[in-house]
Design goal:
Nucleotidyltransferase, domain 5; 12 strands; 5-stranded mixed sheet; 20% strand; alpha/beta; 2 domains; homodimer
Chain lengths: 317, 317
């Protein structure tokens, strides 16, 4: 019997039906639009109900439901903290989905756990006991598999690598989101480029022509292709920080694989050889020899695969 | 029946007899002197044999033997890599000890694993599921407990935090032992002070009067007490690096405790409040709230307690 996977993001909701074997049978995406708080919860519940009905009509009842959330899932009380969804400080998502799921088991986990579980089930981390998914999107976080288990920490908030301290001494810009994330996340790249454009008075490149407020990370990647000096400087800095960050993960965890994913990888895939070269300077040399550095095999679907996997683990079968 | 614990260091060997309940009944220390390679192995085997006999004579047969080694223990083949003992690249320590142990079970683990297991059994990490022992001695390494288990990595070399990248851009001095260790280990502090003395041409403090070759880390701590400028600069830099390093561990692992130990903590104990203040600037703020930062309760005996614990775990009882 099939599995229903839900991947909630900060701006959209993805739903998919998977076979028990992990084949993606059906997928849909819904923009959250201006929804916030309980509106987002109701959207999820309504979408789940609609999908359960549709499957029932096909006489293919859903076996289990898995949900990936963009933040922290508190397993003790079934609530979610999602910083990019207004009003989701302690959102009671488990009860909300259970109210439409009937007897079908519901499992929720953080997106970072789902990413690495997805890659472990059907992506590049298959057969790994120790692998790390480095998700570089709007923010930066890591899903960490160690000794065959997900690293959770004492309060379910392990993997907050956006806060990694890499550039001594401390600068004020690190305060809100951490040193690594402030320069090398989707938001950080645009911020860094805006800062460079306003500092480099002699710079006359294409990023100067944009209004600084609208200068975006895709603009920076586009300008990089045309050898724009500010784009090169901003992304060179990112390559160094990504290299240092994974060097630290390699020295600390001695993993078999580092897997870059999220929206920025994507366009930053081409930097993998340079990131690896940077990491080699810093990491424990024996652990560095044993690790491979790759990009996600599942791309934007990594969270859905992970959600399907946690559903399968918790199914009645 | 009692447990025999052995803690091998780079310069000395400690042996202790523990009760099953974890009371330290007897302890001795032997300097390795100029011993290397198989001479060190023979010293351990002879000391084990002597202790087993002595206990037998008291009709208190040893139940199990645990050994802490200063490097990496390869569980698959019973060999040890210990960088500070000449000729110990693949030293067959398990067989050597078994040859004198008869039917008594022998367990070996790395010193960093033993440190955190010792603290977990009888020190400040009791009742913790997630705690990290940061050992700052000649080098720097971490014993990491996560979800109630020791973090080992894919090749048993996790926890190499001396290699943590904290100061961008890369400097040549990081090449041999890593960024953190090059400045903030027992060896690193002396090296840093020597560098500062030779750079600061106007410096006329007490460290100038020493021959640079013999300037040691204890000299730096002594000079610090007299407000020596070079000692203050070197140790202030250490405080910043220790703070950044534990901030990274806190953001990545979300632990309940960080425990500083090793020879340097010792004299660096007084810096814990300043290290914590530095960490607070960098770490994921929620994880920072949940963690406590302490020094080892077991001090130089942490490795012995850990060795006794792994013996107990592997006893026939």
């Amino acid at each position: 019997m099939p599995l229903l996977a839900i991947d909630l993001g900060g701006t959209k909701l993805a739903l998919a039906v998977f076979s028990q074997q992990g084949d993606l049978l059906y997928k849909e995406k819904i923009n959250l639009g201006k929804r916030k708080g309980a509106e987002v919860g109701r959207l999820i519940a309504a979408s789940v109900a609609a999908n359960l009905n549709e499957q029932r009509n096909k006489e293919e009842e859903i076996e289990a439901i898995g949900v990936s959330v963009p933040g922290i899932y508190h397993r003790d009380n079934g609530t979610v903290w999602a910083p990019n969804i207004e009003g989701w400080e302690h959102y009671p998502l488990l009860n909300e989905i259970r109210s439409v799921a009937g007897n079908i088991p519901v499992t929720i986990d953080s997106d970072r756990a789902c990413y690495i579980l997805g890659e472990w089930w059907k992506g590049v981390a298959q057969n790994c006991s120790d692998a790390i998914f480095v998700a570089v999107g709007t923010g930066i976080g890591a899903g960490i598999l160690t000794g065959g288990r997900i690293l959770r920490g004492a309060n379910d908030i392990a993997g907050a690598i956006g806060w990694m301290a890499l550039e001594h001494p401390f600068q004020h810009q690190y305060k809100d989101c951490g040193c690594l994330e402030s320069s090398a996340s989707g938001e950080g790249i645009a911020k860094m480029a805006r800062k460079l454009v306003s500092e480099r008075k002699n710079y006359r490149g294409s990023l100067r022509t944009k209004s600084l407020d609208t200068l975006s990370t895709p603009d920076v990647f586009k300008a990089y292709e045309k050898k724009d000096a500010v784009a090169e400087e901003a992304l060179h800095h990112c390559v160094e920080l990504w290299g240092m960050a994974i060097a630290n993960l390699i020295s600390v965890f001695n993993p078999q694989k580092i897997i870059f994913g999220g929206g920025v990888f994507g366009p930053a895939k081409k930097f993998i050889p340079r990131i690896k070269k940077e990491a080699m300077k810093w990491a424990q040399p024996v652990s560095m020899q044993y690790v491979t550095i790759e990009t996600s095999a599942l791309g934007a679907d990594a969270g859905l695969y992970g959600a399907a996997y946690i559903a399968k683990q918790n199914s009645n079968m």
